[in-house]
Amino acid sequence: MFAPPSPRMPRALPAGHRARLLRTAREVSFPEGARLFEEGGRADRFWVVRTGSVDLDMRVPGRRAAVIERLGHNELVGWSWLFAPHVRHLGAEAVTPVRAHEFDAAAVHELCRDDPEFGRALTRWVGDVVAHRLHAARVRLLDLYAPYGAGGGL
């Protein structure tokens, strides 16, 4: 969110919009091992990690949950709040103690309604994150479960 774009991280939210969003944040912390949310749960908030790391995981029938990606400083945790039906597609767990900015989805939706330019920028930022996470999930699941891993021209 705050870092410049890189091959690993999607485009950051522009500075003015970022400042506006941060005015709605509250600081929270999670101990190591805390579940931020479960796959299938209601998506009514999201976080940006300040310190620590969070694993995103996916339930796999008959197996342990597969860790899809590890998130850290300035990365968005949770995007399902933006898109109906507002249900979590993954789970999230604090791997280390985490400090984060927490955002109430209803308040952010209201900001988006009141300022369409802000809403477009936020939607584009979250959409970039979703595209990145989809690719990461695909690669990770191929590494875990495909006979020859993610390499080899798929």
UniProtKB/TrEMBL annotation:
InterPro entries per the UniProt record, alphabetical: cNMP-bd_dom, cNMP-bd_dom_sf, RmlC-like_jellyroll
Coiled coil: none
Organism superkingdom: Bacteria
Residues covered by the Cyclic nucleotide-binding domain: 9-111
Protein name per UniProt: Cyclic nucleotide-binding domain-containing protein
UniProt cross-references to SMART domains, sorted A to Z: cNMP
Pfam families: cNMP_binding (PF00027)
